[in-house]
Amino acid sequence: MLRGGDESTPVGASSLAATKDAPFVNSLGMKFVPVPIPGGPTAGQPVFFGVWITRVRDYAEFAEAQETAGKTVDRSWKTQEREGVPAGREPDHPVVGVNWDDAQAFCRWLTEKERAEGRLPEG
Q1: pLDDT by residue (tens digit) across 75-106?
Q2: If DSSP codes are grouped into helix, strand and coil, which group holds residue 36?
Q3: How does DSSP assign 55-108, residue by residue?
Q4: Which of 45, 61, 99, 109 places its Cα 20 to 30 Å from the Cα of 53?
Q5: How many CA atoms lie within 13 A of 90 on its CB side?
Q6: Nearest to residue 29, comparing CAs of 47, 9, 1?
Q7: How far apart are CA 107 and CA 59, in angstroms?
Q8: Is the pLDDT of residue 11 over 60?
């Protein structure tokens, strides 16, 4: 079964099977492609990069989950403006105005969520 009719990684398939032409698609619909690392301590291991930056809808799901769990998230990302014009409010726009700590918390939350759903292996 493919997620959302997408021509990419089947739901439940290992993220390690992803390719540039068939990216890993996570539970939020974010697409990731493997980029090989030729040297250094991770030589030979792929690193997955998102094909686009985190969208408003991706971050909104995280913020809602944090609030449901009784945790706080800086809400500046909901009120960003540029010269009086709202910035980045459409679901597919890049999220803006996220502080470093909340960005790190988003990454941890997403990794834990994907592992709990069996979409990412441990480690």
Answers
A1: 888 888 888 888 878 999 999 989 999 999 99
A2: strand
A3: BHHHHHHHHHHHHHTT----GGGGS-EETTEE-S-STTSBP----HHHHHHHHH
A4: 45
A5: 3
A6: 9
A7: 10
A8: no
